[in-house]
Amino acid sequence: MADLGVNIDHVATLRQARMGNEPEPNFATTIAEQNGADQITVHLREDRRHIQEKDVRILRDIICTRLNLEMAVTEKMVKFARNVKPDTVTFVPEKRQELTTEGGLILQENFAETIELFKEIDIEVSVFIEPRLSTIEMAKKIGADAVEIHTGKYANLKDRRAIQEEINKIEEAAILIKRLGMRVVAGHGLNYYNVKKLVNLNKIEEFNIGHSIISRAVFVGLADAVKTMKDLIT
Ligand code: PXP
User: Which segments within 21-120 are labelled E, that is strand?
Assistant: First the structure.
């Protein structure tokens, strides 16, 4: 049975469209938790296009499950995250012009020092990378506790054979992550139609899903949208 991390960034995207007070992303936290979310995920981007620092601080105070903060590996973000103390930080790449996180993080040996800064205050570190075996070995080498496999390529493919090849890559990646003693996480571009094939691998311990859940919530409400996704992944 896999855990569901609900990414609430796009509730904040809607609020920021008018720079006002609604919809309040942290109302989404409570509804998501009451309907099966095991974790709330937010990405505090450098351009602050959706989630703001105050949202993360409020979230830290009110959350009943676990807080996963996605962050670029910058001095400012490390300082902020060490201060807020999420349960997990996920290192992600960040480019200003991108619509969403494109591609996995290129790991560097000197991330090991940053990872240690989190581990010494009991914060789990996950790295968001492509399903590539050499990168997973590097994740282990620099001390990551978890690996989030970037499923964006899988989600965007149309050709059946290519989809199956990508699933095979994800499965191989998951096996190696587990064998190296790290937690197996997956996310990006997953929705109500493509998630099941990855659930059926029975190797992914947590899924982080945002856009498809918030999109469905526009029509059926967030409670229903989260519950339906939770049923699909368990
Ligand atoms: N996991 C990571 C590391 C991400 O950066 C994102 C996008 O913010 C997600 C999961 C969720 O992706 P989506 O919104 O496409 O479900």
Answer: 39-43, 67-71, 88-91
